[in-house]
Structure formats: C-alpha cells, structure tokens
Design a protein that fits this description.
By secondary structure, the chain is an alpha/beta fold. 36% of the residues lie in helices and 17% in strands. The chain contains eleven helices and nine strands.
Length: 294
C-alpha cells in the first residue's frame, strides 16, 4: 500500500497491523471525512508548502497532505506506528517520518530555512497546549497552525476580552486564533469522552504587544491571573507585594480600572500595564519569570 492508495478504516488497519489504540498516548484516530475536509480547508495547503504533521497516527490525514504539499514532515511518538507508516508510505519520497515527541524533538534539519511552514495535527488532549506553545514560541515559527484540540481548550485560545485566560493571552500574543469547526466524539476511533474543535492559528509576523521583555510581560500576566475571579487591583497588590496606592497608580497609568478582573483585559491593556510597570520600577515584577505561557 502506498500513500496514494486508499487507506483502510482505522479499526481494520489496526487489526491488519496487529496494533490497538494506546490510551496512555491519548490515541484517538480520526475517521470522519467532513472533519478531515475542514482541517484541510483551514490549512490551505499549497504545492510549495512544507507541512509538519503532528501525530499522524495511521496516516489518514497524512495521505491527503502528501497529495497536496511539496513536503510533509510527520512527527510520531509511537514507535510501532512509525514502523507502520514507513511501510504504508514507502513510495512517498517527499514524506519524512520522524520518531519523537513533538514537544521536544529537534525539527530544524527538516524545515526550510528561508520560508515559513505550516503545522497540522490531531493533538493528544493531554499535551495539546504544550505542542502549540512549542511552535508559537520556537524558532523558526510556522505561518499557520491547524489543530484538533479539546473543545474547551480551543475556545479558550480564541476567547475575547470578558472570557480571556492566561492561555488566551499566551496564544494571541503570537497568533490570531479562530475556531473553524467542532468534531463530535464519534468522528474518532476509539471515540473520546469529549467534543473536539478545530482551531486555526495564523501566526503573527511580530507579537501583538510591543514589549521589551517577553518573560517579564508574561510574569505580569500570570500574576494578574493568579486569582482570576477577584478584582485586579487586589490581585496585583498581593501578587506583586506592593502597597495599594502603588498598584492603583500603575493601573491608572495604564487606563485600567482596578475593579476589573483579568479576564476582561485586552492584549493592548496588558501591554499598557506592562509598560507602566517598566516605567515605574522593574522591581514591581515577580522575581522568577520562569516561562512565558501556562
């Protein structure tokens, strides 16, 4: 069987290969053609594109990608599936199958140095946000990410002020997100217990907020979301260990009412608050800004 021949349904293919879904790896194989079509429509894969597919599984999406893209790099954690994919797509010379964890594997040898690439994948729920972070924060960045994630996670990524979260800010700092479709459990084998969503992330040429220290910016955002149900003035007073008058002054300089909650702030308002803190005194930031997203 080659990448141009119809693949068997996942259940039948697993049986033929002597494999079964591995729950520990969060394996749920896509079987719904409508969902597959929505992913490909959102990705807008062109003949000159390099596409990184995360979690190719049994190659149902891979088969379509190799027919559309100039080059496909499929990253798979399961060694048995890597072996199966290598046999299924043996004739596809523009497909590179990489055995590794998409959160950590070095993809630089497989990526074009002079132009952007795209990322497409049905991401395991338990590591989906980490994988998205890796590509958004890494270098080189893709031009677009199209991923299937748990519905609530995808909606959080695309949330607007009033329903923002730390994840919303972290994703929208680097990309413009949009939920382009929902995928019910029966679209997968075996079916998960939750509904999935397809999210498209168009990666920005530069971050949405102009800040001079990304780590400290996100340290401030994390401080603001440390008690998301409470008013921002009190939250920052506690998180930054500052007098109420100092916090009030910073919020006033940023044009933010201290009675507001973190979920209501836009990225522009977080940027204004960050700049107010920088202008006042760098000591107002938390001491250990260790990472840049949730």
């Amino acid at each position: 069987m080659t990448g141009q021949s119809p693949l068997l349904p996942p259940k039948a293919l697993l049986r033929r290969l002597g494999l079964s879904p591995r729950k520990a790896l969060g394996q749920h194989f896509l079987v719904d053609r409508d969902a597959l079509a929505k992913v490909l429509e959102a990705a807008e894969v062109a003949p000159g594109d390099t596409v990184v597919e995360v979690g190719p599984g049994l190659g149902v999406l891979t088969q379509r990608l190799v027919a559309l893209a100039g080059r496909v790099v499929a990253v798979e954690l399961d060694a048995e599936l890597v072996t199966a994919l290598s046999r299924l797509f043996a004739s596809q010379k523009h497909l590179q199958i990489v055995h590794g964890d998409a959160r950590t594997v070095d993809l630089s040898p497989y990526l074009p140095g002079d132009r952007a690439y795209k990322v497409v994948g049905n991401l395991p729920y338990y590591v989906g946000t980490y994988i998205v972070r890796r590509f958004l924060e890494g270098t080189p960045k893709p031009s677009r990410i199209v991923a299937m994630l748990q519905k609530e996670v995808a909606e959080s990524m695309a949330a607007r002020p009033g329903r923002m979260s730390l994840l919303s800010v972290a994703v929208q700092f680097y990309a413009e997100p949009a939920v382009v479709g929902y995928v019910p459990p029966l679209a997968f084998y075996p079916p998960p217990k939750v509904t999935s969503a397809i999210v498209r992330l168009d990666v920005r040429a530069r971050p949405a907020v102009d800040v001079d220290d990304v780590e400290r910016f996100f340290a401030l955002v994390r401080a603001g979301f440390s008690a998301p149900r409470k008013q921002l003035g009190g939250v920052l007073r506690h998180a930054l260990a500052l007098p109420a008058s100092d916090v009030g002054g910073l919020l006033a300089a940023a044009g933010v009412d201290p009675r507001r909650r973190a979920e209501t702030l836009s990225l522009e308002e977080w940027g204004a608050l960050f700049r107010a803190c920088r202008q006042a005194d760098s000591a107002t930031f938390p001491n250990n800004p260790s990472d840049t997203a949730p």
